[in-house]
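User: Fold both of these, please.

Assistant: Here is the first one.
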Amino acid sequence: MRGKVAVIGVGMIRFGELFEKSLENMIQEAYLNCLKNVDMGIDPKEIKAAWFGQWSGGFIGQGAQSGHSLTSMIGNRNIPCTRLENACPTGGDTFRHACLGVASGLYDVVLALGAEKMRDKPSAESLGGAGGGGGAETGNHPAWMIGQGGPAIQAMHATRQMHELGYTMEDYARVAVKNHHNGTFCPYAHYQFEITMERVLNSPVICWPLHLFDCCPQTDGAAAAIVCRADLAKKYSSKPVYVIGSNVGTDHHQLWDRNSFIEQQSTVKAALGAFEMAGIKPKDVDFAELHDCFTNTELMNIEDVGFVRKGEAAKRLSDGEFDLNGRLPINPSGGLKAHGHPIAATGLGQIFEVVTQLRGEADKRQVKLKNGIGLQQNVGGPAFGVCAVNILSRSL
């Protein structure tokens, strides 16, 4: 894929509790914003295929979605469109599949779009499906039956990180403080307010040692990207961004098959493959959008992607290395913690941020670019057993 695919437009809406907007409203707004973002212009008819990321499908009350749902909503029923679902990495994997459609030579210009309505049903029902991998309404999924929801799974990891690596609840709280600070500069973030260590540590315990403010919010949202052949990119954009690495990694489906609770092999595998494709090392990356569904998860992902050694992330965070003006800014958008986590839109929202940063258009949250390379990562599913990683560059 390296050198074959470019992003020429990205678009999204502000994430949040969007009760006033339907799924169709969100999709159309993100799509139109994406078209407008192609600064040299594009005729929508030039888009020859689409991939639609949509995790929740029917059991969050959105009906049985399929590929043609998207093409109907954007007014282009003449193109092939595939609906994709791959747990929390749905958005990142939707983007990857769109890139593969171009890299294969099958299409010149395609669309990737992810959208999710998480707030139109009670939290317990929505979170049950997210954590248990499905079957929330019937409770018939093995993970759901033994309480393997997202907070419980990550609490197990957080506890083990404390035991093996010496991490503390204060270390986790620092992630929330950093990401909320970043979110105040992002007009698309669900939460746009600062938070203190004290507020995090004094908030209600959700599943020890994780507090309320260690957990990302449930969020509605939509985000999109248009990708094309790299050799055509400058026809559409004065600032194309190139995809140089992409991969998906998997691990065991059940927790009892895992051999470690201080790392997630799905992320390790996805990152290794993406870096190999890109022909670079983690040290070459300028910044990253990482999956911080819980604060301890960000620390684990920083290590699993390969940015620091296992057990070093908390100290590096405390030293300011991952701040906006640090050595390696992590989650300049505010991350899932402040930006929100509308599952299928999350990864594409991260792609939006990476592209915006690489173009130098991120305003007050703009990071310093040395090599012009950014990374996006999502991990999730039952036992957090699937991960998507995409690496983008402002040059080939």
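And the second sequence with its predicted structure:
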Amino acid sequence: MSAVKLLAVFAENKLGQMARVTKVLADAGVNIRWMTIATSESFGVIKFLVDQCDRGFTALKDAGFTASLVEVLAIEIEDKPGAFHELAQTLTRQQVNVQNSSGLVANNRAILLIEVRDPQQARAALDGQGLRFLSQEEAMRL
């Protein structure tokens, strides 16, 4: 199965925290290709697509951050109105809940990163829909 790993960091929502996290990754020689932040009042989760997940994970843990690796599906869909809706409806019909998602258009390709409880179930639900699943290596080349 093609799956993509993201590096997730649980961090306090305070001034300079992003700089502290990214310094750890920079000092470890880890290149950030994409990121997202979801915060509450006091804490949040920063997720990164990086070129060296294991190295970044170790560096963050060694620096005292709470980090984990998260498996997501990177899916290429048509860049047209309703394409994401079709994917969402298919997942809903198959009882797959999307926990987190983000997307981007790069090099004329619409790419969704979706996080679900069971990536294999989601992949099976979407098979036959004409979608292309990206590997970790392909995601790094966006």
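The chain has a mean pLDDT of 93.
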